[in-house]
Write a structure and sequence with these properties.
Mean pLDDT: 95
CATH superfamily: Vaccinia Virus protein VP39
Bound molecules: S-adenosylmethionine
CATH architecture: 3-Layer(aba) Sandwich
CATH topology: Rossmann fold
Number of strands: 11
Order of helices and strands: EEHEHEHEEHEHEHEHEE
CATH class: Alpha Beta
Strand content: 15-25%
Low-confidence stretches: none
Structural class: alpha/beta
Shape: globular
Length: 238
């Protein structure tokens, strides 16, 4: 689905960070075939969507930028994948589905643009969209990247103060000057504890949660200590 010459980071067309063509283990699990309908939210150029389609899944790909979805439609056409639909909408406010519509939902590297409060509301919505036993896969960035090292002491301090979302950052360009040109004005670096708390509050059973070592997936200059991202899988109980 992807030529070997793909760069590690592809800039999104709407300053929403970079899409990562080489999938992490959580996104890869999402792409494994299962009966039922899949949904990818914030799919960008659809690297996970295309992999799921190649495994025989039926996928709805969402993004807030229509140009990304056009790219997915063209790529799906090229490979002859018919079981794909695209929906342009801003999640969560403009996206709606009937209850219990999906077997699997992936939100990779999108929720770290939301405040903690907004993540809370969004997860409740996504929970309703899943079938019983359906699974939500979420991947977010942490602060443990070389270009965000200056924020780590502040992050630790906020954690010690007991703040529920110590990674919320209103002024990303004050902390990072190399890659933040392609970032929105607010970012929210996450971690295992806040994600588990958010998932449990929304009613999910946490199936798996771990840091993601981005070696081979992110540019080498960004790699810090194997905790560059965090992934979580939650299941809607019956
Ligand atoms: C950093 S990229 C991540 C792309 C891909 N999921 C990945 O993991 O590489 C974020 C993508 O999510 C989209 N996005 C951001 N916020 C969104 C929202 N509220 N609703 C829908 N799409 C959103 C952006 O347009 C962009 O394509």
């Amino acid at each position: 689905m992807m030529s070997e010459e793909m760069p590690l980071f592809v800039p999104t067309l709407n300053k929403q960070g970079y899409a990562a063509p080489y999938l992490d283990p959580f996104s890869l699990k999402f792409t494994e075939y299962a009966e039922g309908q899949f949904l990818e939210i914030g799919a960008a150029f659809g690297y996970a969507t295309m992999q799921a389609l190649s495994n025989g899944a039926k996928v709805i790909a969402n993004d807030m930028d229509e140009r990304h979805l056009q790219y997915i439609e063209e790529a799906a056409d090229k490979y002859g994948y018919k079981e794909v639909q695209t929906i342009v909408a801003e999640f969560a406010k403009d996206l709606s589905f009937p209850e219990k519509s999906f077997r699997k939902i992936l939100i990779s590297r999108v929720l770290h643009f939301f405040t903690g409060e907004k993540i809370k509301q969004s997860l409740k919505q996504v929970y309703d969209w899943l079938e019983p036993n359906g699974e939500l896969y979420v991947v977010c960035e942490t602060t443990f990247l070389t270009n965000w090292q200056t924020f780590i002491p502040e992050y630790q301090k906020r954690k010690e103060e007991g703040r529920p979302f110590p990674g919320e950052i209103d002024d990303p360009r004050n902390w990072e000057q190399n890659w933040s040109d392609n970032l929105p004005d607010f970012v929210h670096w996450l971690d295992i504890e806040p994600l588990v708390a958010l998932f449990e509050e929304a009613g999910f059973e946490v199936v798996e949660v771990d840091y993601i070592n981005r070696n081979g997936q992110f540019p080498e200059s960004l790699l810090l200590d194997g905790r560059e991202s965090v992934g979580i899988i939650g299941r809607r109980p019956k």
